[in-house]
Inverse folding.
């Protein structure tokens, strides 16, 4: 069964695009809780570690369920150890039985058993917001999801999501395009993917265009069944981009948890990640592609007022330009 066939058969859930409102907090002062379900990055730049930093930096409380432990640094991924599915299930039970989770972000799931376990739990608890970053490949080309996990990911998890955030190579895999070389013509012409992605029948997809060869702009496309919105921002000349996909999807989940609409959450997340990339070189971490500066706002605030204090989690929506809407 194809993803498109499965998506058409999937029943609407509580966390599709229409009718989104933020979960009512238990008290006026309670902070929105966002759960990340993902793998660990031993260097701290991606995975659960990047998610937790992002969620905290954007004004929410982060909790986590770890699916795998990876041995990696800024130069590559050297080993992947999926955790026992029983332990993943225990983590899920622990957080959902105690915490008022408003939004869930899913990253690396490693294998089919974990995909099925996560799908079963989310079908039972029905979180208000669900963002899925389909982590299939590392930047260096290492597979981070077993081949037999792709079908249950497509059939069971993706149709439940508010938003799926593939980059161009990941979208090519989901669509069944020839894979391998990121210089492939289908990846370098992302607008040709949009109609195919719309036919999948998912509530919304954010196609990330960072792998395209435009030297001046980085463009992402928010795709729904009827419309496509393009977000365009100047491409930043910065080599420290480790963990950008994890960071963007986590920021979107956090802004959804704070009550933003989907398009507003994407815009705010892009603004946040632009700043985190722009200030990444200040960290000077590792010998390869270093991490983003997730707390750049706090650093800027300290430099501005000359004292150590936490800043407001509000994000100024000024870095994302040239937003156009069209119907293909």
């Amino acid at each position: 069964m194809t993803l498109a066939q499965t998506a058409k058969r999937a029943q609407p859930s509580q966390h599709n695009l229409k009718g989104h409102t933020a979960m009512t907090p238990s008290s006026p002062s309670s902070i929105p809780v966002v759960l990340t379900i993902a793998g660990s990055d031993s260097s701290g730049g991606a995975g659960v570690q990047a998610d937790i930093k992002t969620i905290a930096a954007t004004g929410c409380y982060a909790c986590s369920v770890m699916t795998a432990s990876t041995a990696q640094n800024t130069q590559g991924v050297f080993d992947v150890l999926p955790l026992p599915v029983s332990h993943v299930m225990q983590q899920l039970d622990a957080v959902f039985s105690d915490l008022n989770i408003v939004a869930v972000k899913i990253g690396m799931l490693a294998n089919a058993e974990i995909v099925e376990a996560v799908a079963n739990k989310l079908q039972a608890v029905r979180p208000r917001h669900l963002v899925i970053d389909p982590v299939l490949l590392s930047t260096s080309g290492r597979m981070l999801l077993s081949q037999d996990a792709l079908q249950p990911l497509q059939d069971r998890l993706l149709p439940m999501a508010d938003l799926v955030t593939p980059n161009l190579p990941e979208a090519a895999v989901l669509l069944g395009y020839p894979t391998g070389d990121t210089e492939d013509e289908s990846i370098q012409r992302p607008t040709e993917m949009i109609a195919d992605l719309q036919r999948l029948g998912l509530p919304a997809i954010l196609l990330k265009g960072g792998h395209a060869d435009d030297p001046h702009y980085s463009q992402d496309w928010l795709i729904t069944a009827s419309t496509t919105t393009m977000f365009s921002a100047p491409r930043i000349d910065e080599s420290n981009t480790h963990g950008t996909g994890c960071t963007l999807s986590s920021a979107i989940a956090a802004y959804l948890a704070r009550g933003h609409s989907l398009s507003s959450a994407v815009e705010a997340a892009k603004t946040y990640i632009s700043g985190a990339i722009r200030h990444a070189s200040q960290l000077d971490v590792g010998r390869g592609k270093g991490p983003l500066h997730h707390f750049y706002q706090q650093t800027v605030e300290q430099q501005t007022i000359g004292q150590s204090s936490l800043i407001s989690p509000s994000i100024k929506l000024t870095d994302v330009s040239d937003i156009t809407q069209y119907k293909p």
Remarks:
- Strands lie at 33-41, 61-73, 76-82, 101-106, 129-132, 163-164, 205-208, 217-223, 228-234, 321-326.
- The longest helix spans residues 262-278.
- The chain has eleven helices and ten strands.
